[in-house]
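Q: Please design a sequence for this.
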């Protein structure tokens, strides 16, 4: 029996990004994301994860620019679209959650209005209708007292609540692709797991594909079906998450895995994020040494400098 493989929602082909036209910092990156799939991009700081996500959204800022390649979104090369067409896609069929919601939220506008605005702009709803939907959106992301919170300004909410608002904005128009760039890195460990679970649950319910950018292998292991590993602007390995953690092929990936925090002799990757966080919190409670961290290159000398 033959299986029908759906067309990818996102297909990046030989993407190169440079500082200006010549100084390449992303080199021929290619990967696909299938509808409803959560794909993880992992790698050290500066490896090129964020600029990959930003280029899909059309949010790269000068001096960075795409110098060659294709970013096919639902069969259309978004790099060939004009600014207006890209703005129409953003927030509607593709959206993004950033690490620090305060930089993405408008501090002068209530959160309810910021959610409603997406529905007015992209769905043509009236303001009263969009406002009702915004309250529903806040309820969906489990913001308590959503009616009241809709009238709050971002600074009146906690970091975790602000990130939930960002998720409500990003998912308001039921996008086909969500790019989540380190969505929980800025949050307390106690709220990180809840926010990740929320993203996973809502995207699963809507069939939204997710590009999850993270340096945290525990997060990637818990959330993603497939994983791409980035090292200095190159995608050096791509595997199913389970296979990657059990049998990493590239020396850099082996280094990355060896460099992850360890508690005692047990490794953390491949186990639930909640379990990992529980262990970290428990070890801190007991006043043990914090997990030791090394860089992948220190941990795995095979990796070339
Ligand atoms: N505005 C910019 N001008 C010049 N170089 C930049 C700019 N923004 C990013 N870069 C460079 O692009 C490379 C990739 O950066 P990117 O932010 O994508 O890394 P990352 O893997 O997401 O790391 P992090 O998790 O720290 O953000 C880095 O070498 C960085 O110095």
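A: Design:
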């Amino acid at each position: 029996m033959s299986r029908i493989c759906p067309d990818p929602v996102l297909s990046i082909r030989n993407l190169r990004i440079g500082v200006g036209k010549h100084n390449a910092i992303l080199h021929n990156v290619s990967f696909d994301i299938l509808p409803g799939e959560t794909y993880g991009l992992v790698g050290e700081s500066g490896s090129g994860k964020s600029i990959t996500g930003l280029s899909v959204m059309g949010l790269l800022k000068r001096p960075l620019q795409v110098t060659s390649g294709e970013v096919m979104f639902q069969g259309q090369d978004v790099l060939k679209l004009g600014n207006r067409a890209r703005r129409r896609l953003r927030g509607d069929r593709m959206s993004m959650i950033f690490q620090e919601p305060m930089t993405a939220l408008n501090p002068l506008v209530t959160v309810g209005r910021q959610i409603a605005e997406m529905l007015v702009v992209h769905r043509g709803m009236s303001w009263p209708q969009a406002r009702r939907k915004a309250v529903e959106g806040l309820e969906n992301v489990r913001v308590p007292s959503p009616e009241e919170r809709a009238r709050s300004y971002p600074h009146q909410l906690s970091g975790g609540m602000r990130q939930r608002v960002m998720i409500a904005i990003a998912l308001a128009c039921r996008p086909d692709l969500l790019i989540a760039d380190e969505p929980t890195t800025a949050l307390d460990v106690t709220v990180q797991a809840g926010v990740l679970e929320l993203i996973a649950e809502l995207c699963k319910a809507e069939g939204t594909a997710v590009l999850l950018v993270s340096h945290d292998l525990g997060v990637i292991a818990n959330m993603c079906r497939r994983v791409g590993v980035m090292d200095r602007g190159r995608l050096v390995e791509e595997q199913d998450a389970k296979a990657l953690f059990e049998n990493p092929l590239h020396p850099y990936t082996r280094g990355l895995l060896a460099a992850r925090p360890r508690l005692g002799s047990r490794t953390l990757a491949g186990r639930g994020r909640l379990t990992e966080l529980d262990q970290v919190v428990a070890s801190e409670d007991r006043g043990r040494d914090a997990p030791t961290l090394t860089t992948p290159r220190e941990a795995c000398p095979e990796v070339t400098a």
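Q: Thanks. Anything notable?
A: The radius of gyration is 20 Å. The longest strand covers residues 23-33.
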